[in-house]
UniProtKB/TrEMBL annotation:
Protein name (record): Indole-3-glycerol phosphate synthase
Lineage, top ranks: Bacteria, Bacillati, Actinomycetota, Actinomycetes, Kitasatosporales
Record-linked Gene3D superfamilies: HUPs
Superkingdom, taxonomy of origin: Bacteria
Organism from which the protein derives: Streptacidiphilus pinicola
Listed InterPro entries: Rossmann-like_a/b/a_fold
Amino acid sequence: MFTTVLLIEKALSAADVELVTTLHTDEQVFFHVIMQPRGKQDELLRAIDDVAFGYLEQAAKEREEPHGQAALGAADAALQHTLRALRHSGAAGAEGAVVDHNPLEGLQELVKEVSADEVIVLAAPHWVEGLFHRDWASQARHKVGVPVLQLFAQQS
């Protein structure tokens, strides 16, 4: 069985689920999902990315994102949706957790604990962070000792 640690920031769309579940067609895949709710700390960077992509309406709504307990509740609902979708799609299994801190903290230990074969970062493009190698995938590549794949989530 192939084991994947999947870092996400929102519920996976049907297209996202299909993408991650068809990467390894010859093997059963078990997913360990880590979800961090979108927080106030990266609000400005998200708005800059939105403007860069021409999503002006979305940039204006960044301040309306839930924060604190509301963000954790929304993230947990999104995580449960994602786990159900992964299991329904034929994955060998899926479990996960919402973290309210940097999801890279403890990533190396999780990769070792579950004997992960890879880490997939599936998030919206973060061009500003990526430019300075501060995005999750760039940072994870220096920590985990397994391949790290960066995929871009479908915009909804």
